[in-house]
Amino acid sequence: MKVADYILKITPYEGGKPIEELQRELGLKDVIKLASNENPLGPSKKVIDIICKTAELVNLYPDGNMYYLSQKLANNLGIGEKNLIFGNGSDEIIELLYKAFATNENDEILYCYPTFIEYRIIGMAFNKKIIELPLKNYAYDIDNLISHINNNTRIIFINTPNNPTGTLTTYDDILRIINKATKDTLIVIDEAYYEYAKSSSDYKELLDLYKNENVIILRTFSKVYALAGLRVGYGIASEFIVQTLNRVRPPFNVDIIAQAAAIAALDDKEHLKKTIQTNEEGKKYLYEQFNKLGLFYVSTYANFILFSTPKDAQTIYENLLKEGVIVRSMKPYGYNNFLRVTIGTQKENEIFIEKLKKVLNV
Ligand SMILES: *Cc1c(COP(=O)(O)O)cnc(C)c1O
């Protein structure tokens, strides 16, 4: 069978190594994973209870309109239900955006890089022209980004806090982008780490930007809400964008357990608070340790830290694996001297630092 060249050029997404895989490969028992920005506390007890209860209903199709989830989230956010779209993870919404809006042959996709690699992978699958501009001081370079906007620019991805660097793009800078882009350019503000960023006094709420007809804000239940394995993400946008996305959305894209779990997760404010507090404490601890070790790191607004290593980072990464610690290699991003570590529980952070010292010989 013939496969198109643009498909053959795609390197499949490589996530953080699963714990079981490392256990299997190296015969290790104790493995910690600080590679995929997951919530180290796990899902809340209330969420687990709802998941078990909902198991009895899985003979039924889920509510394709996600009535209760939409209602609860819209209420929480103070927006209309018609301004929400849900996906099988925000990953799926990114795909729907391409499907619905990047439909012309000459469309260009614009963002700074390194950032979330799915923008590239999905863009390549749609055979789009992708313009990746370098980050400046580990953050989005807005002047350069703006200078590359033209009539073919169809989607601009702004990831704030940016994965893998943890840096913010400011409200005012996003406004500059919106003002420069034409009404035919979709501006995607990916706030997968919103709840973490929000706890900082530097963060300015971006929610009202959804009132622009060509803006969508993406958030997810995968990170702070600890539901990565269930796959629920959402977009906040104008009714026009939501309606358009609904035309191309698979009817039952968020399953019945995921919908129930997401509602329960929204209700558990205590777990959210504890998660953010654990992250703040872990961040402080890891900064201190990096400082002591003389390792450069980028200050983060999320639940992960990009840090550099004195020796080849890929070797450090592989040696950490042998010690049962999974972090994220930045080699696929071209950051050869860096690793990204997810902030874990205090115990996990301590193990990570202990093993890091061991593989660095300090
Ligand atoms: C984790 C992440 C997502 C998506 O997650 P889903 O699990 O698909 O909701 C989206 N954007 C960024 C930047 C992320 O880091």
Any overview of this molecule?
The chain has 362 residues and is an alpha/beta fold. It has helices at residues 5-8, 19-26, 45-54, 67-77, 90-101, 118-125, 142-147, 171-180, 194-198, 239-248, 256-267, 269-293, 313-322, 346-360, and strands at residues 32-33, 84-87, 108-113, 129-134, 153-159, 186-190, 215-220, 233-237, 304-308, 325-326, 328-329, 338-342. α12 packs parallel to α14. The protein is globular, with a radius of gyration of 20 Å. Helix content is 40%, strand content 15%. It has a 7-stranded mixed β-sheet, with helices on both faces. It has 2 domains: 5-42 and 270-360, Aspartate Aminotransferase, domain 1, CATH 3.90.1150; 45-268, 3-Layer(aba) Sandwich (Aspartate Aminotransferase, domain 2), CATH 3.40.640.10. The longest helix is centred in the last third of the chain and has 25 residues, at 269-293. The relative contact order is 0.17. α6 (118-125) links the parallel β3 (108-113) and β4. The chain binds pyridoxal-5'-phosphate. Pyridoxal-5'-phosphate is lined by residues 37, 89-91, 116, 159, 163, 190, 192, 220, 222-223, 228, 233. Homodimer. Pfam families: Aminotran_1_2. It catalyses: L-histidinol phosphate + 2-oxoglutarate = 3-(imidazol-4-yl)-2-oxopropyl phosphate + L-glutamate. Pathway: Amino-acid biosynthesis; L-histidine biosynthesis; L-histidine from 5-phospho-alpha-D-ribose 1-diphosphate: step 7/9. It comes from Desulfurella amilsii.
